[in-house]
Specification:
heterodimer; A: mainly beta; four-stranded antiparallel sheet; globular; B: mainly beta; six-stranded mixed sheet; three-stranded antiparallel sheet; 9 strands; about 0% helix; about 45% strand
Chain lengths: ~120, ~110
């Protein structure tokens, strides 16, 4: 069965970096895009961008350029989200989710909580 | 402020039908498919409806959706207590070249 399993929660200090993993299984990793979605505490869903797992090209939404990097390791069927220069406002749940073409996000990871606090 | 707007809350009693609206523009809902997601408390979102009105496998037929022009709606019939959740619509936004989510609607089952 299709699964997206994310890394555990992280507590980081301002200015540090964090790298979240999204390990997929049960399907051909290179066939589906991986999207990243942020959910700040008590807030709604915000699309951060997507990673073309076939070409390796990342696309970042407005507001998620510069400090955010999408990457993947195809042989491990794993995608990554790295955030540099963490700020308090980066405190949120981060989800990975797959989709095909322009379709909906049909499978989601369980979410990785990143807390930024001194 | 999202480019796609939803009412922040909705409510109904068990057995009722509740409708949640999603309003956009010609550059998102007006020209692209709408997807709906359900987020139960403390869980990841789940795809409820894709391509305006298609239910993925496992989604009860109590959930139906439609799109007209630049608006879409999700209807939940035979409301049950386990339907209490946040519901989000989403569509591709041509001007931003990316996905946009509505702000979400919290459904309360009274």
């Amino acid at each position: 069965q299709v699964q997206l399993v994310q890394s555990e929660s992280e507590l980081k200090k301002p200015g540090a970096s964090v790298k979240i993993s999204c390990k997929t299984s049960g399907y051909n990793f290179n066939t589906y895009a991986i999207n990243w979605v942020r959910q700040a505490p008590g807030q709604g869903l915000e699309w951060m961008g997507w990673l073309n797992t076939n070409t390796g090209k990342p696309t970042y939404a407005q507001g998620f350029t510069g400090r955010f990097v999408f990457s993947f390791y195809s042989s491990a069927s794993t995608a990554y989200l790295e955030i540099a220069g963490l700020k308090a406002e980066d405190t949120a749940l981060y989800y990975c989710a797959r989709n095909y073409g322009g379709g909906g996000f049909d499978y989601w990871g369980q979410g990785s909580l990143v807390t930024v606090s001194s | 402020q999202s480019v796609v707007t939803q009412p922040p809350s909705a409510s109904g009693t068990p057995g009722q039908t509740v409708t949640i609206s999603c309003s956009g523009s010609s550059s998102n809902i007006g020209s692209n498919n709408v997807n709906w997601y359900q987020q139960l408390p403390g869980t990841a979102p789940r795809l409820l409806i894709s391509a305006n009105n298609q239910r993925p496998s496992g989604v009860p037929d109590r959930f139906t959706a439609s799109k007209s022009g630049t608006s879409a709606s999700l209807a939940i019939s035979g409301l049950q207590s386990e339907d209490e959740a946040h519901y989000y619509c989403a569509a591709w936004e041509d001007r931003l070249n990316g996905w946009v989510f509505g702000g979400g609607t919290k459904l309360t089952v009274l």
